[in-house]
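Section 3.1: Structural characterization of target chains.
Under the original work plan, the team committed to producing a structural model for every single-chain target entering the pipeline before any wet-lab resources were allocated. The record below documents one such target. The sequence was received from the expression subgroup and is listed exactly as submitted; it comprises 110 residues.
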Amino acid sequence: MGIAELVKELGLGIAMVLVVIYLLFKLGQWAADLVKDTITDLKKQRDSLVDIIKGFNVVLKSHNEHAQQFGRETKEGFGHMRREHADLLKIGEEQTKVLTRINGFKKGEG
């Protein structure tokens, strides 16, 4: 059945209503396809972002492990320096005692 026969049988008003209903149906299909495509694209983007965040977390974990190791090594290094400084102070005190005995310095003398 062609459009001309449809208009003859039903009349112009009803034919226009049917055309509008058909156009609305096609518009609904187009909107549904658009929403479906948008949802698919958003899912792909979300998956991509999740992968990026996972990679970022791996990098942060590695960085934290290296920073903690560096902190431990630095603490050990500074502990060694502190021990060396304490030893140097002891040596300095011993040298002061020796020099005061050699020079005959007594406590209370100017």
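DSSP finds two helices and no strands in the chain.
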